[in-house]
Amino acid sequence: MNKKDLRIVFMGTPDFAVESLRKLVENGYNVVGVITMPDKPGGRGHKIQYSAVKKYALEHDLPLLQPEKLKDEVFLNDLKVWNADLQIVVAFRMLPEVVWDMPRLGTFNLHGSLLPQYRGAAPINWAIINGEKETGVTTFFLTHEIDTGKIILSEKLEIGEKDNAGKIHDELMHIGAELVRRTVDLILEDKADAVAQEQLFVDGKELKAAPKIFKETCRIDWNKPVDEIYNLIRGLSPYPAAWTELHEAGKEVQTVKIYVSEKIKSEGQSPAGNLRTDNKSYLHVACPDGYINVTEIQFPGKRAMKTDELLRGYKFGENAYFI
């Protein structure tokens, strides 16, 4: 069988998935159908918005399904009609066995980490938050437990000291698309010698998780060491963004987002969260072992801006602090 005969169904939703779909389509693979999330209202005016994958599918006249429920009989019948040999999942949702077990060659997933590390919904964010020096992408066959199936291929990527989640996301998106293509070729050639993840670790306690990120996850604790706060900020930038509360005498408490920062190591400074600024060019926040130099910040209802730009129009009070 060649790539024009192999019937592929692709499942995905955001931009991260589009790059893999594009790689398949532009290289002549036979994508017979695409599955993405249902349309939903969003943005100003709550207008109906299409997923990035849906937009691409429509632009390239690819058959499309958008099931509300993945066990719905109508959806399952429509999926069977496509008669897929192989299904590929990139940033979609958890599939029931009746779906992932349908194709004769199985279903594989692209995950944004070096499995078995960082199983879960937010692997890119957590790798940076935890101060990792490298991450990567992995393709693996789906099975019952989420992100636990046999590994087909993986590719490493170095995480630079100043890299944030947005940069690593975009780099892994392109690396991952090529890994998807290589994985399909291995399966076509019957050379996909998948390895059980259990062979790659001794004790499950050594595995780091990547759970879904909630608002409280993003709150900065200024009592943490400088390195941890710095990694949290870049691990959540540009989305969903680390945040803190600004307290100033005589003013309402404001929730402030911080997108970019620098580390200043020192001893004997102010209590954690206290601000040090000339109200012209810099904004330093005290931590137990130094300061965080805030270089890009966003106030409620305003756009994100460089600190020196903010300070042209906003002056912090003498006893202002973050908490």
Structural class per helix/strand content? alpha+beta
Number of helices: 8
Tell me the total number of β-strands: 16
Give the overall silhouette: elongated
**Low-pLDDT runs:** none
- The ordered string of helix (H) and strand (E) elements is EHEEEHEHEHEHEEHHEEEEEEHE
- What is the residue-averaged pLDDT? 96
- Measured between the Cα atoms of the first and last residue, the distance is 61 Å
Largest sheet: 7 strands, mixed
Helix content: 10-25%
Radius of gyration: 23 Å
Strand order of the largest sheet: 5-2-1-6-7-8-9
Note down, in words, how this protein is organized.
The chain is an alpha+beta fold and 323 residues long. 24% of the residues lie in helices and 26% in strands. The protein contains eight helices and 16 strands. It has helices spanning 15-26, 52-59, 73-82, 97-100, 123-129, 165-188, 226-235, 307-310, and strands spanning 8-12, 31-35, 40-42, 47-49, 64-65, 86-90, 107-111, 134-141, 151-158, 242-247, 254-265, 275-277, 283-287, 290-298, 305-306, 321-322. A seven-stranded mixed sheet has the order 5-2-1-6-7-8-9, sandwiched between helices. Strands 10, 11, 12, 13, 14, 15 and 16 form a seven-stranded antiparallel sheet that branches. A two-stranded antiparallel sheet has the order 3-4. Strand 14 and strand 15 (305-306) form a beta hairpin. Helix 1 packs parallel to helix 6 and helix 5 runs antiparallel to helix 7. The longest helix has 24 residues, at 165-188. The protein is elongated and about 70 Å long. The mean pLDDT is 96.
